[in-house]
Amino acid sequence: MPGQGDIETCVRHLGAPARIAGAILRVLDRVLGTLAGLVLAIMLVVVLVGVVLRYGFGTGLMGAEDLGIWLHIALIALGAPLALNGPLAMRLDILVSRLPLLAQRLAGISADGVSVLAGLVLVFGGGAVMEMVGGTSPTLGVPEALRFGLPMLGGAVLLVMLVLTRIAKGDMLRAVAGPVLGVAAHILAGHVVIETSWPPSFWLALVAGLGLLLSAPLAHAFLAAAAVAIAFGSSLPEPAILSTTVAGLSKFLLLAVPFFLLTGALLTASGAADRLVQFAASLVGHRRAGLAQTVLLTGVLFSGASGSSVANAAFGAATFQPELVRHGYPPAQAGAIVAATSVLDNVIPPSIAFLLLAAATNLSIGALLTGGFFAGGLMALCLAVAIAFTAGDHGRMPRVGRRVQMRAALSAVPAFGLGLIVVFGIRIGIVTTTEAAALAAAYTLILALVAQRGVAGIAGVFRQAAVEASAIGLLIGTAAPFAFLLAVDDIAGVMQSVVTLLGGSALAVLLLSNLVLLALGLILDIGAAILLIGPVLLPAAVAAGIDPVHFGVILVVNLMIHGLTPPLGLLVYVVSGVTGVPASALFRAVLPYLTALLVSLFILSALALVFRP
Questions:
Q1: Taking burial as the number of CB atoms within 10 A of a residue's CB, which of 216, 261, 272, 490 is the most buried?
Q2: What is the pLDDT of residue 7?
Q3: Cβ–Cβ under 8 Å, residues 292 and 395
């Protein structure tokens, strides 16, 4: 969704259609954002009421899990259209931006065609499923068909917002040509049959990759490619694509994602994040490259609170990068330090990446989070060494006494309470992952209220977290048809055969897996790669005698490193967007820290060979 300032700048120089489209977009932005934030608040209340009833009164809330899942789907339907543009769209635009102007225009029209095709799949697929599905939900007492009507609504809003955005920018060619191309592709996909010896999953991957290269949103590329794969013999017709997408979202565990995002945002809004910074500075600020080491330690401490690397990167870029520059660090190096330390946020618990992996593979989330503590500590140690060697002696702070450290520690105690709620609550088995995430969100909400943040400010935090969660949720859902076809085409078996040819040893599995992950991470979003490749690689690792949890940790660490690598490098782009430092300069400056993280990956892989079950 373009910023309101961008829209207003455009429409001042355009005619009535642009002004009307811009006005409608602003209304849609406010209404959808408000509704998405409200749905997130209701989700939080539903889960918290269930927790109170279960542990306080020995009973439960009838249908709480089903209601939470339905609300999560509604959240995605409302919020996903707002993530049409910006980092949450997960577009790969670095290649398109280098094309000649005419080629850029054609790529833009094609990318819109991909988004239109994705929207049509949601609309027509949802309508078809609603006609086929009967009965009512046994716990909620409402027609089951409504659950599939929610994505249909989201697809319709997506189409409207796409066209209005082009009109508001005065680009009538894209406003017409993109939808025409998408409608034509939708018609052809349902009527053309192409005989080929390659499996449908191959063509889905190829078309999705093409859509990504054209700078279409990644989730839209997945959904559009699933529709095109029908022409190549896919066993998923359009209604099945929609139902598989919804099934991929119908897991109570996934509600933890928006709750953890909300926790991180509320922690910042409450001021508790600033107190974490002060505590970190009191411990390491006096050391060599003290300010840079403070950034690293704050990243470690903040990781245990937000579970989102994007949130940590945005916070660090706004808070630390200017301070690092003021103390003598080159702007690119300052931004690279922020981006590199943000990698830890999806490794040290609570971790959204581990939640996705657990949802895709049924691994124990508690065991994964425990492994994340060790892996995150190792990565932080390697980064500390790299910073000490490369960051010079800029920003060294005066050493403070024990009394100052104790005061800083006491002021940071409220933030540390999150670790007890989330990690120990899950690991000991007191609460489920989703319940722990809801409790953490409620805890930080209380901190924000105590800090006297206004209702409007807290409502804005809910809106922000809802839109971020919607974009991630849409990606999870749209990756489900791809994962289904990978299973149907027995790609896991193919991978096992390749491992067998290499000797079938644990060393062969780890080497092949890391190479595959390092390659896929260059072209796939981290979440999508986890959802798609995790179930494929894990069976081969187990067969080779590698501990599945340890392998899961290696998988997440490997893919998280790609937050720093071109062409996707999401964390680099977030820091670039906040600081204004060119992404190309950040990619060069981050190389020493990328090397340090690769060393930590090598150590983790070596330990997997040494400590086998």
A1: 216
A2: 47
A3: yes
